[in-house]
Every structure is written in structure tokens, then in C-alpha cells.
Amino acid sequence: xxxxxxxxxxxxxxxxxxxxxxxxxxxxxxxxxxxxxxxxxxxxxxxxxxxxxxxxxxxxxxxxxxxxxxxxxxxxxxxxxxxxxxxxxxxxxxxxxxxxxxxxxxxxxxxxxxxxxxxxxxxxxxxxxxxxxxxxxxxxxxxxxxxxxxxxxxxxxxxxxxxxxxxxxxxxxxxxxxxxxxxxxxxxxxxxxxxxxxxxxxxxxxxxxxxxxxxxxxxxxxxxxxxxxxxxxxxxxxxxxxxxxxxxxxxxxxxxxxxxxxxxxxxxxxxxxxxxxxxxxxxxxxxx
Length: 288
Known about the structure:
This protein is of the alpha+beta class.
């Protein structure tokens, strides 16, 4: 074979190979794609690879980037709301089932023999207070300890003055107030036996050295009272008898009276400025 024939043969073979390669690339039955591997600022290299036809992701260009943060701060589907309402409802349901959202007031009482079976001793208490009242339900007690510890880090000293009270303890207390103040006045600040939140083991009265460990409305203006008003909800507590809600709660403003309701309810009550009565009604939560 002459050199001229060899050259022609090489050219013909080359053309056939090129045509075959072009046909393969453009054949719709063979999905190929040129993609990028690199950071957000641009490509670091090119590749030729087969498209991932996994039905979970579809086309590779539509596969979610797990490093891309959503506007709501989470990862995953950008269409998901900032708060998962189903999860919120489940948390409130669990709190209600545990009795954390029980409503005890002048219209809702508990029987004389009602006593939580998971009372736990409080380790932070004011001096000269009844030992029998140094208890809360276990979850509330743990949250109270965490709150007091956190307050201490900010230089704020908080102590329990009274927490759990039995029906008979409350009866003696109420009767004493009635004898001293008269029933009309006593009913503005002291609950009748069976109508006190303290019997649930979820309520706690607190105080600090700044007011001599007394229960005083001035406490709300003290550093400790202000800290509690701004931070108690972070530990699942609310100010049970807030200012301006007296016509709903039935009791005067008490900046020292905290009630444990759990983290979800406490946060929402704080942010919405509600009383417990309003919150339970607004969310159609059974109070028992």
C-alpha cells in the first residue's frame, strides 16, 4: 500500500470514529452530563459523567445541596415552615398529659387528698421556711435548680420561700389571713384550700436578699424580679399572676409567684403576654 493510500485510510477511519462518538453523545437513550465540582465561588474542575437517575433526586441539577441553609436557619426543604406545628402540638399534648398544664384557680379546684407522687426536694430555699414546703414535682424542681444556677452566673440570687403545700397547709394559711384581713381582702391574694396552685407541686414563691426574703410587690422592680420576668420562661416557668391580668386570674399581681408549664407553653405565654387561663382557652387545651 502506498503512503497516499495509507493516509486516505487513516482519514476515513478517523471520520468514522468521530461520527460514532458524536452519535453516542447525542443519543437520548444514553444520558450524559457535564457538571461542576467546586465551591460556591466557581468551578475547580470539570467532569463528564452519567446523570443520576435515582427517582429520589431526579436530574442531578435538581439534587438538593445539603450545605445550603434555608432562610429559616434549617437544612432541607425550603418550603418547610420555620416552626413545625405538628411537633408543637405534640409537645403541648405531652405537657398536658403529664399534668403540667393543669388549671387550678377559683373556678377549678383539686380534692383535699390530691398530692403529686413525684415530689422532689428543692435545694435552694430561704432560711426559716417550712421544711414541708420545700418540694416540687421532679421535672419542675430540676428546671428550678437550672434557673437558679443560671441566675447566679449573672450575679442574681434567687431562693424558694414556699413551693408544695398540702390542702390542710393551705387551709390553715387561708384561715389565718381571713382572721387578720377579712375574707374580702384575703381572697385577693390567698387561695382557698383546694384552689391553690401550690398543691399541684408546680408553683413556687421566690424571693431574694434585696427584699429580705419577703414576698413584696417591690420585688418586680428589683434586679432579681426583672431577671425572672425576662428569663423564667427559658426554663419552663411563667409569672402566674401578671400585672394587668387580675380580672382574669382573680388574684393581685405577684412578681414572686412562678408556675411551671414546660418550655413550649412558657415561651408562647411569655411572647404573647397571656395569662395561663387565656393561653389554655386560646389553644383549646384541656386543663385537667
